C-alpha cells in the first residue's frame, strides 16, 4: 500500500479528478495549501500598490492506493496536471509507504480498508 501525495495547480483539480476517475481511482483527500519553491512568488497590484506574494496557492491531493494502483494513479496525475507550457510550478508527486490502514466503521484492515 502507498500514499500518493501530489501538489498541483488549483485550476488543474477538476482535470486531475476526471483522469483519476477514468482509471477507477475514486478516493482522494483535497486540501488548499500554500507553498514556496522555484517560482519564488509573484508581483501583484492591489489598489494601485504593488506587492510581492511569495507563498503561492496550490492544491494537495492525498490518495491511498493498493500497489497495483500506484502506476495508474501517477500516470493519471502526470497526464492531467501538466500545464503544457514548460514552465515551473506544475507541482510534485510524492510516493510514501503505508504500514497500516484501518477502516473506522468496521475495523477492516490492510488493502481492503482502502
UniProtKB/TrEMBL annotation:
Keywords: Phosphoprotein. One of its GO terms (cellular component) is cytosol. The keyword DNA damage does not apply. The modification O-UMP-tyrosine is found at residue 51. The keyword Phosphoprotein applies. It comes from the Bacteria. InterPro entries: N-reg_PII, N-reg_PII-like_a/b, N-reg_PII/ATP_PRibTrfase_C. One of its GO terms (molecular function) is ATP binding. PROSITE patterns: PII_GLNB_DOM. One of its GO terms (biological process) is regulation of nitrogen utilization. PANTHER family: NITROGEN REGULATORY PROTEIN P-II (PTHR30115:SF18). This is Transcriptional regulator.
